[in-house]
Amino acid sequence: MAVYTDVTDDALAAFLTDYDIGSMVAFRGIAEGVENSNFSLRTTAGDFILTLYEKRVDPADLPWFLGLMEHLAQRGVVCPQPVRGRDGSALRHLAGKHAAITTFLPGVWPRRVRQSHCGPVGVALARLHLAGADYPAGRANALGPASWAPLLDKCRAGADSVQSGLVSQLDAALAAILARWPTGLPTGHIHADLFPDNVFFLDDTLSGLIDFYFASTDLLAYDIAICLNAWCFEADFSFNVTKSRAVLAGYQTVRPLSAGEQAALPVLCQGAAIRFLLTRLFDWLNTPPGALVTRKDPLEYLRRLRFHLSAADGRAYGL
Questions:
Q1: Over 50: is that where the pLDDT of 1 sits?
Q2: Which residues pair with 108 in a beta bridge?
Q3: Contact residues for 13 (Cβ-Cβ < 8 A; gap 6+)
Q4: Which of 91, 134, 236, 252 is least surrounded, with the fewest CB atoms within 10 Å of its CB?
């Protein structure tokens, strides 16, 4: 979450007349995250989240994202629900951008990940995968392996200013990852961004999942690899295999991994690391001046990538 686009009080008041959610009581930008402009909205009817979709989101994909959230909720996954206007539409325009209001989920995301968080995250991810199985539409992963080389090319001119020799390191790693990228593994709808700030807890109980705007149809085990990168490294970037084992064990109580998925886990984790390294690098080099957004250090994912490149097999992850 972030704020790139300002919304005036008058524009918001006019926007809310299309809904049956009362009038504005409080409104503020949310600086966390990097993708869309997000605002906490309180009206006389309750609390909501207003999202303005920025340049990385293809407007043609928005009905798919919003429909997936409704589909998952109908099957027991706790996630925000699009609020439809009086005309039945959940998608509108505000301040020159596509925009939507969603319901507010209570809870807080874990600033310090504990092992006790990791098992429930694995369970929730597996339940999401199963719940999405009968969502009929598919969406290609716009930030999947085919996008990584072009994204690196967009960063070449400035990457070595972030760290000397970074381009050559990424070229070598990406070539090795793409050469070994698996095919034929189980696919389905994935969250693709299940970081700690997208998972809420109440009294140590997982209370909901948010931010489905990277969701796509891809390898299910790749979604697990994203979680291992996001949840299982310590502040010094050492890998916590106990947390990884908890994520994987929780996941497999709901959906056991195939032998092929287990064997592919190291390269899937490498791919997840380089994907977030590249998007963070691009944002680091291209975030507009003055944007209310917290830039994220791409080199944190270089350290993760080095661990995954050294992993011989699934035992490195607690399998």
A1: no
A2: 201
A3: 23, 24
A4: 236
